[in-house]
Amino acid sequence: MAVILFEAPPTARPARHALVTRAASRTAVLLAGTAGFALAFVAAYLLFVRTEAGRSVENGVVRSAQSAGSTVSWAQPLADLDLVVVLGGVAVLLVVISLLRRRFALGVTALILLAAPLVVAQLLKLYVLDRPSTGDRLGVAAHNSFPSGHVSAAMAVLLALAIVLPRRFRLQVLVAGGVGVAWVAAAAVALGWHRLSDTVGGCLLVAAVTCAGAAVVSARRPDGDRVPLVPVLCGLLAPPALVLAGFAVLATATSGAAQFVAAMVLAALSAMAVVLLLTGPLRRVAFDPAESRIRLSAPAPLTRCR
Fold it and tell me: Among 84, 224, 241, 253, whose CB has the most other CB atoms within 10 angstroms?
């Protein structure tokens, strides 16, 4: 008996299931992340820089770092780096990757998101934010160092590379690169260059600017109309909670040595935590304008007739 195969007419397609849910809004999650990281940045500045207790404990960390000397040799490679040369090399690398991928517009986006948070960080540090004097008489510099330029640069480099590389590698790049950012944060504290709040503030500022840029990109493309409550609340509340937890832990350390170790560990853990908080909102954002979001409909099923 012959078997004849033919395509079913369009009217023969089954109706959509009534329980299919609407797509969740990536833009809402990104906006919540932007607000959460920005609030955490403000909280870190107010708690660590503007309060007497915060300045006192962090000055103790700086004194311990200055007396540590050669015991932090693991952090010395950071001191040997020329930040301007590194940033220039990364900018060239971003352009090369975008040209090799034939995604020049994506390279421009990555360069903008590399430079924008660094410019904002320097403007805030030099012209907007200040550090009140605590009357410290033990040689601790009183000039404002919030947020850290080195940690901001490390964070911005990581996110720019994660954007310009193929999206399927973004999660792996962020997780692996987060370890490098954590090392830079801990090393900046160990060398006595920065306080814990400076490193946390650098990470939070870059995260907020990147989330804002990603929200602009996401809003220009088709998105869902359902606001996912749990990711939005996580984006709003998790970064401030991270700052509060770090302040509480550092305040419990009583001796200078304990404060020094706690600040280094907290700097590394906080940097890694900020990177991990970013992986969710950024994982599915299509920064490449050439990346098509049109899904081809599946071919009509074949109906068998005997």
Answer: 253
